[in-house]
Amino acid sequence: MTDTDTTRGRQSDSALRDATRVATQVIENVEEVIVGHHEEIEHIVTAMLGRGHILLEDVPGVGKTMLARSVAASFDGEFKRVQFTPDLLPTDVTGVNVFNQKTQEFEFRRGPIFGNVVLGDEINRAPPKTQSALLEAMEEGQVSVDGTTHSVPQPFTVIATQNTVEQNKAYDLPMAELDRFMTKLHLGYPEAGEETAMLGEVVGHHPIEELKPVATLEDLQAARDTVADVTVEEPIRSYATRLARYTRDHAELGVSPRGSISLLRAAQARAVLNNRAYVVPDDVQQEAPVVLPHRIRTDSSEQTAADLVTAALKTVDVE
Amino acid sequence: MSVVARVRRRVPWDETRLLALLSVALALGAPLRTMYHLIDVVGSPTVFLVVTAVSLAAAAVLARVLRPILAITVGAVLFGAGLVWYVTNLSTDPALSALLRDTVALLTGRRLLQIANVRLWVISFAPAPVFLTTYFALRRWYVTATLAAGTALGFFVLTTDADVVTTLLGVVGAFATIGFGTLDTIDHPDERQSPGAGGSVATGASATVDDQGVDSGRRSVLEQLAAVIVVPAVLSRLPSVSGTSLSFVDEEQATVEGSLVDADESMTIQGDISLTPTVRYTVESEAARYWRVAAYDRYTGDGWVRTGNSSPYDGTRLAEPPGDSRTVRQSFEAESDIGTVPAVWKPVRYDGDVDVKLTTHDGFQPVGDLTAGDSYQIVSELSVATPRQLREAGTEYPDRVTRRYLQLPESTPGRVGETTATLTENAQNPYETALVVEQWLQNNREYSLDVERPERNVADRFLHAMDRGYCVYFATTMVTMLRSQDIPARMAVGYTPGEQVDENRWVVRGLDSHAWVEVFFPDHGWIQFDPTPSEPRAAAEQARIEEARSEGDGAVDTGETGNDSNFTETETPTPPPLTETNETTETSTPANTSNETATPFVEGSENSSTEGPAGPTLPDLPSREETALGLVALLGTAAGLRRSGVTKRVSRAIWLRYQRREDPETDVEQAFQRAMYVLDDEYRPRESGETVRDYLDDVDAGEDVRRLAILRERLRYGGTVSEEAADEAVEIADSIVSNR
Q1: Architecture of domain A230-319
Q2: What angle do CA A22, A23, A29 make, to 5 degrees?
Q3: CATH (one of 3.40.50.1460, 3.40.50.300, 3.40.50.2000, 3.30.450.40) for A7-215
Q4: Paired residues of B333 in beta bridges
Q5: What is the ipTM of this complex?
Q6: Which PANTHER family does its entry note (chain B) (predicted)?
């Protein structure tokens, strides 16, 4: 169904149009580099617009890092990257107080967390203490070092990746911490045609080297404000509630209220992406498969969390 | 969870149980109501009410502790004890065979009211069914409960004591009990099972399903009840079964003769009535008197019953009336087939072609029917007591008379006695009282065959509310008034002398049938009084004869009647007064045959006075019971329609086609729903998890529907709506509906 309607929301038409344009431009820009994965790119952008963080999970070598770097490179903000290793210390992420011989004072040397887009590579290889340093920044927008808190720059988005191989050498993120990512995406292998095309593009000069920012941080911030103003009427809110309750009724651990909030924020961003100032059930249905599953622990090994979400979307009455 | 469900959890008896118990109450109420009516006719119902209440309470208490088999035993013991108590309390000591014969007679249509001690009978009979029904209803053995109540009601149906409406109420109650009872037992698997076995854990969803099942079950019970009420009523309209089924409407207009003379051992007071012109007897008699057929002693409020059994008559001479009397011989010849043998009061000997029995009030009753040409001779002893003798007769009534002939239904309003007492204030003795009452009725009530039958207490209504009636009303009222003054009286029926065709010869027609009063005087026996105004009655009868003649009805005349040459002057003589109202005429006695007050009938001139009231009459309002039954029928029909989906389809069709405009929001939403209904119909329903957009894509819906969906989406999720959008939406919906 085409989205040709331009309905007046609570905001001006131009703000909505600008936000939609920013999102579209970022997506197109990333697609310069990444072949295929259109939906995943959309999800990443909606998560960014919805003030969320993204977790990419898959086997190595399918382009998780490349995708994250492409998104980051599309903005003119500060891009930082942390490679998580088993011996990585929390201070390696947050920064550390060092003694300045000249001034005879301690001064705070910022860690890589202080960026607008932070790429946390292979997050599950670091010990929990280091992971939680990153997670505190994601949740609170600040880090604490030696009792002093330092705010991270805004806008602030973490794109983390984790490997699903070598599980015995990994520290799996606990559910409580997974919950802080708005979306969790699986990339999967590209299709045959796409892979061939990709190979042709990257054997020579990798296109990411030439990727230019297409949006400023101000654009991103404005788009986020627009998204936050998208109308979510009662029928939508109650639909989200019903979905969450369904998962709680049918799984050992269901979607938390934080999950429902994330779902609606993602749906708001999706509405903006579709140039609409209000959320429709379709937005919710599109975002639910990436927003909800990592918050659910099913009580049977046969049904995965993703299956449960699919079942919920099929069963729960969308009025 | 609905409020109902929440209440249901809190109240130990859910609605189904309540409905079932109410139905039981209805089923048990029908026989109880009949019993109450029986009791009411003969005396105070207090003892009966107490006995019933005690049985009810006992059953309620014992239902929790007593085992069913013991309860049945208790019921049987109650029944047996009642029987023994009844038999031992009878004043007479009847043989077992007589009791058995009585029971069989009851079961084949003899009214219970004819039993002399009906009060005793009812009180001894009541506890068993009340106890058993209540006990089993509370134990949730609804079928057994229905059986107990139904047996009791069935008995009264066989004795014809239960009227149509009561019976129907009872039957509806029984059906409802079984219907709702089944639902109730399904609802509560079984109390007799061990706890927990039936108490399955019901989730919210399955509870809702259960509720729906119960609801639809209730509806189907209602439908069946409606069928129970409606089907017989409809069937009785069909010609082939007319008269065999229940009917709320009188089948046809009754005749005076049919209601009086043909009535066997009981008679019901009718409403509108007509006259039969057919010739019944030719009488040769030494005196023109009322030809008496029978008498009734027990007044039920809406009719009369003759208690006791008739005895065989062996041709011997019967007892003469006490006091002075003279002999009157009569010879009757039947002119058409008929089942009565009238005679002048008081008959002492019968001799005829057909064997007769002797009824309890010294009337003869043929064993079979008389056929045309049959004849019989009667010897009667006519009391010749003078008014002075009657005045001085006193009030030393024998017990057997007071026991039987002072009875009045307990429900008779006190004002009957008060009014009578006021009217007869100056009367010094029973004779004068009777005269005053007779005179008052003759003077103050008009004669008419068009009567709106009162629901109950005919006498009270006739005395206080009605202004016209025919002989039955006059006689019934007079008996009631006299009894209220402790004067023994009874109702007699028979024929007036009829048309005199020769000096000692009379032709009696069906329309000569009549009802009058017999009053008991010590030492003189039963003396006849007639409170009906004679002139209008005779006029009505004559008019009917003329009418029948003009219609060419051959049965109106014999060879002797219908020509003017014979006795035109004394044709249809007004019956001689049974008592003298002229106090000064010492010689004229009630038994006197003198014609001094006989008024020659003035032909034709008084026809108009016999016409019934010409004014508009209101249709009869249905009684409470009929209203209740009608309501059940209506509800059941509604439930049936609902179940068959007719109402839903009709309202759906209207809803689909005619959208009433309200506010824009409602309009858009309703327009959208209409369009969705059409799509649902044409393609498939939208599934639960399917968004509107997905659905429209899937069914490949047209642009207009999509436009409508967008309008609705904006309203619903965007919160924006306008009059224009509403107009557009309705317009789209209209076109979709009309184009489908």
Answers
A1: Orthogonal Bundle (1.10)
A2: 90
A3: 3.40.50.300
A4: B282, B375
A5: 0.79
A6: PROTEIN-GLUTAMINE GAMMA-GLUTAMYLTRANSFERASE
